[in-house]
Amino acid sequence: MLQVPLKCPITFKRITLPARGHDCKHIQCFDLESYLQLNCERGAWRCPVCNKPAQLEGLEVDQYMWGILNTLNQSEVEEVTIDSSANWKAAKCLVGVKTEDDSDSCGAKRMNKAMSPGSMTLPTMNNWDMSQAMSPYIPPDMNS
Questions:
Q1: Contact 30, 12 (CB under 8 A)
Q2: Other CB atoms closer than 10 Å to residue 47's CB: what's the count?
Q3: pTM for this predicted structure
Q4: SP-RING-type domain spans which residues (predicted)?
C-alpha cells in the first residue's frame, strides 16, 4: 500500500491538474499550473518531488491521479492509499474536519476501483483560456 498526497509540493494546496516529469519514477504529482508559473519565473525545470529534470516538453498529466482528484472533487481528503491492484481509498482528511461517521477516516470504507482513461473526460487545451496563459514561448509574428 502506498500513501499518496493530493497536495502540491510547490503550493501545499490541493492539486488541480496532476503532472510529473517524463523521467520521474514516483506516483506523487505536482500541480501543472503551479509548476509552469514557478518555472516561467525561475526557470529551473526540476521536479519538486525528486529533483530530476522536468522540462516543459517532457511533462505528463497523470490521468489516474486526475481521476482520483475528480472523484474526490469537493471532499477534504489530503491523501489516498493505493494498493498493488491500483485500487485506492481516502486516507487522510484535513485536520478538524468532521465526517458523518467519525469512526471512519474521511468516510473511506472501501477501496475504489481504478478508472480507465477511456471512461474519463480529460481537460483539453480548448478548456483553457489561452489569452490568460503565460507561455515561455511566444511564436513569431509572420505578418511583419
A1: no
A2: 23
A3: 0.69
A4: 1-74
31-64, pLDDT tens digit by residue? Answer: 999 999 999 877 889 999 999 999 999 999 999 9
DSSP letter, residue 132: T
Mention every residue, 6+ apart, whose C-beta is less than 8 A from residue 20: 26, 28, 29, 30, 47, 49, 54, 59, 60, 62
Helix (H, G, I), strand (E, B) or coil at 4: strand
Left, alpha or beta for 51 (phi > 0: left; psi -120 to 50: alpha)?
left
Cell 496563459, located at residue: 133
Cα separation, 14 vs 65, in Å, equals: 12
Of how many residues is the chain composed? 144
**What does each C-alpha distance from 61 to 54, 65, 74, 103 come to in angstroms?**
12, 9, 21, 35
